[in-house]
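Closing statement on the zinc ion sub-project.
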Amino acid sequence: MITVVQQLSFAAGHRLKDHEGKCRNLHGHNYRVEFHLRSPALDSVGRVIDFGEIKLRLGGWIKQHWDHAFILAKDDEEALRAVSMVSDQRLFVLENSPTVETMSNFLLRNVGPEMLADTDARLVKVVMWETADQFCVAELGD
Ligand SMILES: [Zn+2]
């Protein structure tokens, strides 16, 4: 089984409104993400997919939607209202609380399939660091 891995970093703000401790405050992280991709066969050049394409497609999505954005849950009305008052502030609303679990799973299940739809490559695993010591692994079950 051959897997290619592309890493990238971005910065974003969030909060976990029901958190028992300090994570209920508006704050941010320098996130690090690892995208793991596979394809049924290597292409005529001998690649799963060109690394430049991964950066363009998956990195491009992050740059456009999450980098220097605030990422909030759709039921976090108070924070949504506050962040919405800042003009031109990038805001991304997730179905669930923006934990590293929710975010890595969103990349795996939504962004990967959407951004790689016209390629043979498939995003099979996302590893995402919220801090240097804490990370989450989201991977497809099969
Ligand atoms: Zn946090």
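The chain has three helices and six strands. With this model delivered, the sub-project is considered complete and its resources will be redirected to Aim 3.
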